């Protein structure tokens, strides 16, 4: 049941005073998220729907490459973190329990998953493995900012691969590149896959998935068929710098700001060595397991989509991750024929399985249209007196605010579906 008259969608005319990023302003104004503390955010019902649609796409694609979903705890013993040398990272939250045992709040899950694999995997027959979960990460970020773009607590999909050798790792890595490319395509984001530094994870190679947007903190260098993290571009042999401009093959590279939405790493034996994750090969030799690690942040995908497609009226979701696909606006007081007609359309859309939010509030058309454009569902349907007179429902495509051909006014699900099916191909 999604009637705005009883749905928690606290829209605001003004953005929070401290908000700079478009996604921060609009996600709060549209009633999707609310702040609890510095870098601590609550997802309200409509926002959570978007988050979970992104999660659904990620899950399907990781399952499709043979990922096995599980769940590891956030609260962890300090010991494995000491073994991998990561206990002293500043961003790692540390605490002690009542008995004085040192604990941490996981900022990522290499330690936990490698600990388990070290106990469970015995021989080459147990490999390869792709394990993953969606789990909360806690990070004492130096500078939480921009709404849900950089928070101290967020959900990550992190997968981990386990192979007998480098060739296996490269195969598992390539599978993740494929899955991540499909995830990004499906969400509707504009993105680049760029080579990145290996950074704090250590290892053999890495890529970042970058979504260009104004609020991004990273910079990417773009050329004809070329995309790289700026630091990587600067350091590469075929790029030179002239008067502050990066030049590759005689062509200047364009620099765009972007937000990292995903990051994949070939770890090699960086974690399996200190945590003793080994297997026996055919000849009885004990060898370290080759690992990869693959992260993606649904919250950043959501915020990047807001950043990329918003206009001065509000959010404009890609259809695949919109909280609702259709925003139905009823115009006219309760008890009028036009209101009855809108109720009929709402019932029929729900029966047809359309994801719809129904603005049945006691408010004027101006306010309803403004909220619809703020919330950003891909299609807006309006049922008022004019619809009754003309026998058709007015349809607006949110992206570009373009008028679409009207749909026949009906309370028959099949008729409405047919009308919508004719419209969807022109909706991004
Ligand atoms: P950044 O470079 O932006 O600090 P990171 O390199 O530390 O991020 P990873 O540890 O690779 O990030 O995490 C994988 C994914 O988790 C990121 O690509 C991003 O989508 C998400 N993520 C990381 N940090 C945060 C954060 N503070 N808030 C929200 N999402 C985050
Ligand atoms: Mg990074």
What would the keywords be for this entry?
single chain, alpha+beta, Rossmann fold, nine-stranded mixed beta sheet, 30% helix, binds adenosine-5'-triphosphate, binds magnesium ion
What does this entry look like structurally?
It is a single chain. With 428 residues, the protein is an alpha+beta fold. The chain folds into two domains: 22-219 and 257-309, Bira Bifunctional Protein, Domain 2 (BirA Bifunctional Protein, domain 2), CATH 3.30.930.10; 324-426, Anticodon-binding domain (Rossmann fold, 3-Layer(aba) Sandwich), CATH 3.40.50. 30% of the residues lie in helices and 30% in strands. Strands 3, 7, 8, 9, 10, 11, 12, 16 and 19 form a nine-stranded mixed β-sheet that branches. Helix 2 packs antiparallel against helix 5 (166-187) and helix 8 (337-351) packs across helix 11 (413-423). Bound molecules: adenosine-5'-triphosphate (ATP) and magnesium ion. Magnesium ion (MG) is lined by residues 260, 263. Residues 260, 263 line the site of magnesium ion (MG).
């Amino acid at each position: 049941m999604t009637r705005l008259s009883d749905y928690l969608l606290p829209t605001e005319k003004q953005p929070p005073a401290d908000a700079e990023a478009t996604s921060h302003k609009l996600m709060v104004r549209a009633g999707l998220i609310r702040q609890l503390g510095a870098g601590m955010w609550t997802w309200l019902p409509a926002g959570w729907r978007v988050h979970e649609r992104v999660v659904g796409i990620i899950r399907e694609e990781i399952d499709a490459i043979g990922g096995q979903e599980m769940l590891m705890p956030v609260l962890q013993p300090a010991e494995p973190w000491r073994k991998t040398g990561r206990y002293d990272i500043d961003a790692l939250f540390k605490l002690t329990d009542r008995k004085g045992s040192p604990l941490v709040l996981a900022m990522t899950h290499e330690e936990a998953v490698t600990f388990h694999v070290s106990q469970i995997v015995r021989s080459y027959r147990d490999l390869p493995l792709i394990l993953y979960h969606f789990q909360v990460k806690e990070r004492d970020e130096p500078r939480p900012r921009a709404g849900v773009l950089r928070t101290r607590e967020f959900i990550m999909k992190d997968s981990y691969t386990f192979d007998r050798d480098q060739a296996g790792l490269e195969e598992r890595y390539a599978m993740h590149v494929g899955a991540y490319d499909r995830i990004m395509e499906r969400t509707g984001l504009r993105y680049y896959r760029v080579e990145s530094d290996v950074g704090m994870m250590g290892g053999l190679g890495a890529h970042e998935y970058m979504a260009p947007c104004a609020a991004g903190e990273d910079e990417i260098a773009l050329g004809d068929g070329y995309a790289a993290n700026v630091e990587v571009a600067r350091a590469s042999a075929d790029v030179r710098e002239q008067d502050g401009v990066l030049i590759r093959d005689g062509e200047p590279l364009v620099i765009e700001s972007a937000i990292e939405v995903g990051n994949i790493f070939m770890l090699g034996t960086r974690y399996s060595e200190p945590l003793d994750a080994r297997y026996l090969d055919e000849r009885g030799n004990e060898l370290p397991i080759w690992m990869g690690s693959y992260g993606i942040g649904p919250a950043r995908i959501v915020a990047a989509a807001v950043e990329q497609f918003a206009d001065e009226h509000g959010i404009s979701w890609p259809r695949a991750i919109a909280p609702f696909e259709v925003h139905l606006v009823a115009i006219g007081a309760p008890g009028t024929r036009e209101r009855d007609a809108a109720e009929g359309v709402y019932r029929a859309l729900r029966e047809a399985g359309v994801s719809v939010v129904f603005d049945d509030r006691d408010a004027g058309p101006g306010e309803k249209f403004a909220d619809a454009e703020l919330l950003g569902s891909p299609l807006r349907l309006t049922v008022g007196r004019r619809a009754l007179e003309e026998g058709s429902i007015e349809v607006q495509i949110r992206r570009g605010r373009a008028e679409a051909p009207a749909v026949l006014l009906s309370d028959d699900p099949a008729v409405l579906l047919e009308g919508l099916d004719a419209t969807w191909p022109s909706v991004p």
